[in-house]
Amino acid sequence: MTVPTLRSGGWRRPYAWIVWGGVAFFLVNLAALILSVVVDSFAVSWFGTWLPSAFTTRWYADAWQEFGLSDVLQVTLLVALAVVGLALLLGVPAAYALARRDFAGKRLVTLLLLLPVLLPPITYGIPLATVLYKFQLAGTMSGVIAANLVPALPFVVLVMTPFIEQIDTNVESAARMCGARTRQVFTRVLVPLLVPGILAAGILVLVRTVAMFELTFLVSGPDSQTLIVALYSAAFTPGIRAAQAIDAMAVVYTLLSSALLVLALMFVNPTQIVAQVKEVAPE
Amino acid sequence: MAAEGAARLGMRHRLAERGIDRVLLLLVPAVLVVAALFLYPMLYGVGLSLQPRAGGGPFANYLAFFRDSYQSGTIWKTMRLALPAALINVGASVPIAYRLRGRFRGRRLLTAILVLPVTLGTVLVADGLLRYLGPKGWFNRVLLDLHLVDEPVRLIYNYWGVLFSLLITGFPFAFLLVLSYMSGIDPTLERAAATLGAGPWRRVRHVTLPLLAPGLATTFILAFVLAFSVFPSANLVGEPANETRVMAIAAYQAAFEKYDYSMASTIAVLMGVAELLVVALVLVWRGRFYTGTTGGKGS
Fold this sequence. Notes:
Chain A: It comes from Sphaerisporangium corydalis. Chain A: Residues 73-264 form the ABC transmembrane type-1 domain. The complex is a heterodimer. Chain A folds into two domains: 4-56, no CATH class; 60-272, Orthogonal Bundle (MetI-like fold). In chain A, 72% of the residues lie in helices and 0% in strands. Chain A is built from twelve helices and no strands. Chain A has helices spanning 4-7, 14-41, 58-66, 69-100, 106-118, 121-134, 141-165, 169-177, 182-211, 214-219, 227-236, 243-267. In chain B, α4 packs parallel to α8 (159-183), α9 runs antiparallel to α10 (200-228) and α12 runs antiparallel to α13 (261-286). By secondary structure, chain B is mainly α. The two termini of chain B are 49 Å apart. Chain B has helices spanning 2-17, 27-49, 60-67, 69-100, 107-115, 121-132, 138-145, 159-183, 187-195, 200-228, 232-236, 247-256, 261-286. Classes of the chains: A mainly alpha, B mainly alpha.
């Protein structure tokens, strides 16, 4: 075990209780917040009482039909998968070049890739939307995919570069000595070694793209809305749709994205997303 | 012929020594895409911001923005939300991550529970806040029944609603990063300090925190970036006409309600500048810390 001596007595100190108390307070309020949305999504009507008088599931059916949820889900999935595919296809080779070579202008390239991650999406989203309107790409699926690629591609490069740096160059040299060509080194040696990293980056991009509101909101049209944009539009124009139906849709969204996150957590150790942490071997 | 071939080979060798060879071609597609979809629109936007719709010189838009207090006030309103949100998220993550470092039973589950709010989405959080903290919501009912307050506390459709929303959606990110940096710190260092007679507080103050500081700076930057682009929650749980009219709302209104793309680009550029200023300040501050090989330092 790691540090039993340091931890012993931790529960008895008041400081630990303050921390756990704060965590409990946060979680209780959060659970109540989520629960109030879930309860409302099943309520016939709910005004000014502790609990609604009667429950129903019709809002889910309503949401499904009124919002055209099956179409919206289809668009969401299509956009997200296309973004993941393109970001990996372009990003992994770029990460390889950045991890293996030191060249003049590398800092400039790194800065170019870092900026889309650092700037708020609205900052480049508005000029990007203007440009896409100019090329008549705004409102189309390709426009939405292109816009979402802007933060996704640098993200893949930034996640994959340290991953590739970890792989011993000798493995590649050995493959070359055995007569493998560049393509074969990639497909037979590197990609199999990189599968965990590629999976991790891919799922994280998937989660982020499903959750990316601003960019999709700025460039999407009626036929290219993803779930979160449809949800926001419904919530921002109250009165047109029943509040319970919006809540039902929000619950569907949360279920979808938490399913994705759980999937991601199965492949990625959450504490290793940013830094390649060397696990301390148990002594 | 042979000499020319040798010369070319020599050239290639010399370039390879400087790290330039065919591997770099792999970089080209990604850089082209980022240049086309990010750099070109950004430069186009800067150019657009210098061509005001109403004329009056290239900087007319910028002058107009700063002269109109309804517009320039958005900078302060954005900072007033984003800075505390980022600070609280990072600050709260540190003691929790400190408790969760090392291994013990239930650590993975607790981590997952704390990270899961990432998936809630701004709309569900906004809806939930409106219901839960509303005048008839459970939170106010409990307070009223306990006679802690005489009338419902107003926590939505103002500054507080947006801040809560930013805390809920931003905390998991900050926590995940801090936990990751915290796990990167070699636990033997702390044990060494304990062996030398340092109490728990001194171990935190003189060993863990200094090693963590650069990582905290990185986390703060990312949390700040996230909070700075606050848009949906400012509209849904805030007071978008006044108290929470953040820069993103101003830019959006200019573009899609007034169709003044030039002004919208101006606000977008100023938004980027204001944010990068804070980021640069934090980076300068971060540069003063130890960034050696022991973890917790961030990239």
